[in-house]
Each structure stands twice: as structure tokens, then as C-alpha cells.
Model the fold of this input.
Amino acid sequence: MEKLSVLGIRVDNLELEEIGRVTLRLISEKKPSIYISLGSLTVMLAKKDAAYKNIIESAELVICDGFGVKAAIRLLTGKKLPRLTGVELVSFFAGLAEKKGCRIFLLGASEAVIKEAKNQLERSFPALIICGYSNGYSDIIITNEVKKKIKEAAPDILLAGLGQPRQEKWLSENSRELGVPVSLGVGGSFDVISGKIKRAPLFFQKLGLEWLFRMLLEPRRIKRNFVLLKYLMLIIKDKITGGK
Ligand code: UDP
Done:
């Protein structure tokens, strides 16, 4: 696997097949590991937060999520990274788990959303074993209840939709204790899977304008778009100066 970087933050050149292969190996070895799904906002967060950057550096896999990272790598290195958004990642792991008989735990979002996301996934993947779920608002940082629930459910894969960087920080602090072989953050994916938030029409997705669609639906996201603009400027600067 080739490790690349965007503005000094790690991202891996990974085919889906390789993600599947590594996942099954980690599950058979029962070795607790974390994957990161890296979008432009993740890069900007990690640039400001050394602890977060370290979590990304020491993750088992860093998967490209988002047009911004894919486009930056293309511009800076000429390489074509496969891109998987959070929702696509959830589908990918649900499909893999269904095929191989692995157990999945869903963590995050409100109670109504996570329940509905579980229903939707069970509809799409009828043989999938969802061994447990929990909303992301039960004082997750201080209570041990969620951890107990996860340990008892003994999943092979833990999908945590708590938003970045919260989800990765929580997983990095707890994954060893939880003993789950593969854990990863999936941001707001459960909101989309449950139908609470609409995914952008294909037209927006293809042009890499999903952020614009989401901003129109949720104007509170506007601040994020200033961060994305700064990201874009840094990438252009990097291209002009060759990263110096
Ligand atoms: N969330 C949660 N617990 C919290 C805060 C947020 O479970 O304490 C959930 C929230 O309901 C949403 C997701 O985390 O489903 C964050 O989604 P967002 O789109 O903000 O995250 P991103 O995809 O940008 O990381």
C-alpha cells in the first residue's frame, strides 16, 4: 500500500479489494485497529491538531473520502485515488460483513436515526448481522454503558458516526479496551442512510459539489465552506511552490 500526503496529512492509495483483504485479516487476527476516512475538512482539522494528526499517522488505513482529497492528490502527484464517501464505506463494510458472516455494531446519531439506519441496512443486506447499536448522545465520553454494550456484543467491525474529530478521538482512546478488530468513523452517514438527510442528486455528486447541496439544506454548514476555501488555496499554493 502506497502512503501519500495532502498538506502533510497521510492518505493511502487503496483499492476496495485491498481494504476488504486487510479487514478480513485484522478480523482473523483479532487485532484492534482504526481506519480513517479522510476528507478536506479532516485534513484542515489535523493540520491544527497534532494529537489528531498522530491518530491519522498511526491508523491502520487512511481512506480517501471526498472530492477535495482526490482532486488534490491528482493535482499534486498525478495519481488517481479511489474515493469512498462515508455512506459508500458503510455499504462496503455491510456488504463485506454480510458475505463473510462478520458482526457489525452501529454507534452514533440520535436514537431515531440509528434505529432507522439499522432497519434500512437490514433491508438492503438481509443476511447482515448487526449485533448491536447505540445512539451517539448517551454522554458517550463519560459513561461506560456504551462501552459495556459494545464489548458484550463483540462486533468485528464498529462503525462510529459521531462527527470528526470526535469519533476518531473516541475510537483511538477506547479501541484497545473494546477489542474490536476494525473501527472507523463514518461522520453523518447514518443521517443519510436513515433518510433524515438527503444525499445530493447525482449531478452534484459527479461534479464534486455535494458540499454545496448540503450547505443549501443546512446553512449552519457555511463556516465549513470557508475552511474548504482555505484548503483549496493551500493546495494551489502547494502546487505552485512544490510544497516548500
Ligand atoms: N453526533 C453524535 N453525537 C454527538 C455529536 C454528533 O452522535 O455528540 C452525530 C450527529 O448526530 C451526526 C454525526 O454525529 O449524525 C455528525 O455528522 P456531521 O455531518 O456533522 O459529521 P461529519 O460527517 O462532517 O464528520
